[in-house]
Amino acid sequence: VIPQRLFGKTVVITAGPTVEAIDPVRYLSNHSSGKMGFALARACVEAGAQVILIVGGKVALPTPLGVTRIDVLSAQEMLIAAEQCVAGTHAALQLEDEEHDHDHHHDHDHGDCDCGDEHLESLPTADNLVADIFIATAAVADYRTEEAAPQKIKKTQDAMSLSLVKNPDILATISHAHPELFVVGFAAETQDIEHYAQGKLIAKDLDMIACNDVSRADIGFASDDNAMQVFFAERYNQDSAILDKASKDNIAEQLAAMIGDTLLQ
Ligand code: C5P
């Protein structure tokens, strides 16, 4: 029996790569498999949580049982979905509500519409927050094309260049907008793990960060295994923890347990 450390908690997780359109048939992306995020979603459900998994790109992994899955493509779409999920205003959650609980009358304000870039400025406030925990495992593309071409780009020129602009930092945006959320980040580093982890913990105002050493060929990215070092925000007074190489499912179970224990402190 798995301890229900996350019972009654709502967890929003981002997973997979993001896909940034160049034109209607081409895109920029990365090799993220989404496995760590899916494993975490499963582990959080097993620990008793309600889980919403926001999946970027074109991840074909099966959705773990009991998880509400929302597919998006780009970083901008992922940010909007993350904000709406954390606030409980995402259309997919309203549908679920109605399916699960026909008899209840919902009198909270859903707004007129549930999607689109124009709603970024009307981001929800802390008052209507429904999530307790936000975990960012997604490998968000750092840059996107300034503008996707409306038509397929023709190969008429010998050389071409793309103009790229920086994507929003989803984790930092959510964390800064909602200080009461328990926020967990991931980091892939090749050196000075502790130094960079502590830097991100502070810069993105995280409660916890899990880092893996991507210079090792046997773990991370497409692999089924992972090994991690976990750091906590100073206020928890908690030493960093080392999770030895194990399956991503096993690592995810350990991380879910750590999140539950830290949250209860
Ligand atoms: O800064 P760096 O990309 O190394 O940070 C990694 C962490 O930040 C991961 O948890 C990742 O999911 C999150 N992230 C994000 N949005 C970005 C870049 C990173 O949510 N644009």
TrEMBL record:
One GO CC term, this protein: phosphopantothenoylcysteine decarboxylase complex
Span within the parent record: 180 to 444 of 449
Cofactor(s) needed for function: Mg(2+); FMN
Annotated protein name in UniProt: Coenzyme A biosynthesis bifunctional protein CoaBC
Family from the record: In the N-terminal section; belongs to the HFCD (homo-oligomeric flavin containing Cys decarboxylase) superfamily. In the C-terminal section; belongs to the PPC synthetase family.
UniProt source species: Psychrobacter urativorans
Its EC number(s): 4.1.1.36, 6.3.2.5
GO BP term (any one): coenzyme A biosynthetic process
Record bears the keyword Magnesium: yes
Function per UniProt: Catalyzes two sequential steps in the biosynthesis of coenzyme A. In the first step cysteine is conjugated to 4'-phosphopantothenate to form 4-phosphopantothenoylcysteine. In the second step the latter compound is decarboxylated to form 4'-phosphopantotheine. Catalyzes two steps in the biosynthesis of coenzyme A. In the first step cysteine is conjugated to 4'-phosphopantothenate to form 4-phosphopantothenoylcysteine, in the latter compound is decarboxylated to form 4'-phosphopantotheine.
UniProt region (Phosphopantothenate--cysteine ligase), positions on chain: 11-265
Alphabetized GO MF terms: FMN binding; metal ion binding; phosphopantothenate--cysteine ligase activity; phosphopantothenoylcysteine decarboxylase activity
Entry keyword set: Decarboxylase, Flavoprotein, FMN, Ligase, Lyase, Magnesium, Metal-binding, Multifunctional enzyme
Gene name tied to this protein: coaBC
Cofactor binding note of this UniProt entry: Binds 1 FMN per subunit.
Residue ranges of every copy of the DNA/pantothenate metabolism flavoprotein C-terminal domain listed in the record: 7-90, 131-259
Pathway stated in the Swiss-Prot or TrEMBL entry: Cofactor biosynthesis; coenzyme A biosynthesis; CoA from (R)-pantothenate: step 3/5; Cofactor biosynthesis; coenzyme A biosynthesis; CoA from (R)-pantothenate: step 2/5
Catalysed conversion reaction: (R)-4'-phosphopantothenate + L-cysteine + CTP = N-[(R)-4-phosphopantothenoyl]-L-cysteine + CMP + diphosphate + H(+); N-[(R)-4-phosphopantothenoyl]-L-cysteine + H(+) = (R)-4'-phosphopantetheine + CO2
